[in-house]
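Action item from last week, closing it out:
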Amino acid sequence: MNYDQIYYVMVPSYSDENEFIHVAPTEQTGNRRFHYRELIYGEPPVNFVLNDAVDSNVTSPMYFCKPSIIVSEELGRLLEDTVYGGKLYPASLSNDNTAFDGYLLINIYEELDCWCRKESVYKQKDPDYYPRVYQYRIDSKVIEKIDEEKRLVFRMGGSDLSPVIFHEKVKNIVEKENG
């Protein structure tokens, strides 16, 4: 199977009204290193600050705090048990005007190194650092060892940027939720 046609690097869409939305962790949340450490259930939710371009009338089912992704609880219910090396963790979003509850952080703490070194396009200037990958090709021998439903969302390992990857099933759900 050609997995390159069914997996997508998730990045914000800058072609719509969300272009001016910025999300940043609070200092306390940032100190928890949520981008790459497992968050423990029972500890406080992670908190993020949205800029004032967002109000209670304009919300989104997905926000980016690169490289992490925050999703609505509704979208999160659809993603339950699909995150390889991670989980959904309670999150809150707020700005000076409004608090937005009902969000979850996709907390990915284990990467999946499944890109094919022979077919991907990348540069590696120094062997002591991860390479910069410009075009990923999925290594079928690695990906097929994991049940599809357990790898619908994952963070690519073995590269310097470690993007979050969505299976087309999840991509289609996200597109439907975003209208």
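Closing note: The chain has a mean pLDDT of 90.
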